[in-house]
Amino acid sequence: QVQLVESGGGLVQAGGSLRLSCAASGRLFSSYGMGWFRQAPGKEREFVAAVSWSGGTTYYADSVKGRFTISRDNAKNTVYLQMNSLKPEDTAVYYCAANRFGWAKTKDNDYAYWGQGTQVIVSS
Hints:
7-stranded mixed sheet; mainly beta; 11 strands
């Protein structure tokens, strides 16, 4: 029914930038709230950013405010995460997720659909 596929991860130096993409299948994409989460080795999965169905509302974790930007293009069924001024502590597997509420949710148990994840490594 709904498939999410992340891309754009890789290795980058501290202070650099990456742009992650999440491509979604299905005609209902424009009604979903979308989020990005990340998980570092040995740590719990944590919230990064979220955007409402229209793109009008966004939320960010304190750790990424001012550095990361979430956006969406409903015509292309795609959500993005622009990551600037990257730090070694941003190293993690990044996951794209979709919720059926349409709101910008910050808790992972509100999301029904998940991508496979994409690795981001920031070197110092």
